[in-house]
Amino acid sequence: MKLFIAGASGATGEHVCRLAKEAGWDVHAFVRSKAAASRLDPAYEHSVGDPTDPQDVAQAMVGADAVAVCLGISRQTRSPFAKPVSPLDLTSRSVEAILQSMQSLQIRRIVYISAFGASESWSSIPWWGRAFLSLTQVRHSMIDHTRSEALLASSGLDWTALRPMMLDDSSSSDSAREMKSGDSLLKKVPREALARTVIRALNDRSTIRRPVALVP
Question: How many CA atoms lie within 13 A of 178 on its CB side?
């Protein structure tokens, strides 16, 4: 298995790279800057490019068997009120370029890290949670994840959208699990657990062509 990872230098992407390598897979880490590339493990094959440019993406994706998308809209800090520093449509434009490249290269499997609150799951958040998110910069991510999920759903490819509610940086030796009725939305999913779930989902056909809400 050769895995193409978009957003490989991010807080979750770096875990996905490491765990894929530990699983014995070949890794192609795709990042947006030379500075990000300099922080990658030299054991990874990597390239620098614009994830919204189909030509950059396709050149880097040659030879891949599957794709993991760990991109998101960056903010100045992790505060939900911090100003975005990425384009507000970065994720959906990147997904559009990635899907186009996958189709041209005949790659079918993609796992996308979305968020609980995207698409129809927005209505499952309590009113006070929706009110809070609507007042924060996180709303831009929800809007863009919703656009991205629509692109996945219409792609005809074997996609999975993973939807954690909140994330933290605690270590974890377990994957996240699929949310069930009655589960709390306030528990944070460790980014490492999310990354383990990405790796597991890539070979789990029961997750194909559907969103999967996640809890720790």
Answer: 10
Q: Summarize pLDDT for 44-81 with one digit per residue, the tens.
A: 999 999 999 999 999 999 999 999 999 999 999 989 99
pTM: 0.95
- The CATH number of residue 207's host domain is 3.40.50.720
User: H helices then E strands: how many in the chain?
Assistant: 7, 10
Enclosing domain of residue 188 = 2-215
**Closest-CA residue to 98 (of 25, 152, 33, 178):** 152
The Cα–Cα gap between 189 and 11 comes to 13
Tally the domains of the chain: 1
Which of 159, 212, 214 lies closest to 192, judged by CA? Answer: 214
